[in-house]
Amino acid sequence: MKFGVLVFPGSNCDRDVLYVTRDLLQQPTRMVWHEETDISDLDVVIIPGGFSYGDYLRCGAIARFSPVMQATIEHANKGKLVLGICNGFQVLTEAGLLPGALVRNRDLHFICDRVPLRVERTDTAWTQFYQKGEVITLPIAHGEGNYYADADTLARLEDNGQVLFRYESENPNGSLNNIAGICNQKGNVLGMMPHPERASDKMLGGTDGLKLFEALLKVAATV
Predict the structure, then answer these.
(1) CA gap 31, 2 in Å, rounded
(2) pLDDT 10s digit of each residue in the chain, 223 long?
(3) Residue 116 — φ and ψ, nearest 5°?
(4) How far from 112 is each of 27, 64, 206, 223, CA to CA, in Å?
(5) Where does the record place the catalytic residues (predicted)?
């Protein structure tokens, strides 16, 4: 399985993701500059955290117009896998690949912490190595991680089972319905505010995030 990690001016978690896919999982991975238009060689596109284009206007608002994001939309529409982490989640909502928006945290403060998450579904490419209802711990680091959507959109997300991760016990940022991560209806696009790549190596104190990446190798084996 070949991974591609998008790199925008302002990305700062791209190397973290590269370490997981290339070094820990030993999968071919290439860094994809934001001006590229051909990503046809990739199986999985990962939009990492950071501050794409300095987060001017709104988080992810400029990145959505980049050439590589137009290619990523086509990649997703073909049913291929796309993962957006933190700023990547924001980019996915701005690009229309996921519904809703990420707005300022409830207390208007940047949050850097480790939080418990509840896994809502295990029948997706992303979550198949977890147990339904399992509580995992992942780091967060964001100032605009408050998930918002109108009532009809929230209802559709819940009815379709598109919420894959929720904040457990305490909501750190005010996200509606404690939403920490959602997928599209097809299930091939996932956006999440917590950082699984920062919880994939024992040296960092936990490996709860590694299962998400390992699950994709099983997908590749069955294709």
Answers:
(1) 11
(2) 999 999 999 999 999 999 999 999 999 999 999 999 999 999 999 999 999 988 888 899 999 999 999 999 999 999 999 999 999 999 999 999 999 999 999 999 999 999 999 999 999 999 999 999 999 999 999 999 999 999 999 999 999 999 999 999 899 999 999 999 999 999 999 999 999 999 999 998 899 999 999 999 988 655 4
(3) -80, 140
(4) 29, 25, 16, 38
(5) 86 (nucleophile), 195, 197
The residues spanned by each domain of the chain are: 3-222
Residue 92 and residue 94: Cα distance in Å, rounded?
A: 5
| C-alpha distance across the termini of the chain, in Å | 10
Q: Which residues are catalytic?
A: 86, 195, 197
Q: What is the CATH number of domain 3-222?
A: 3.40.50.880
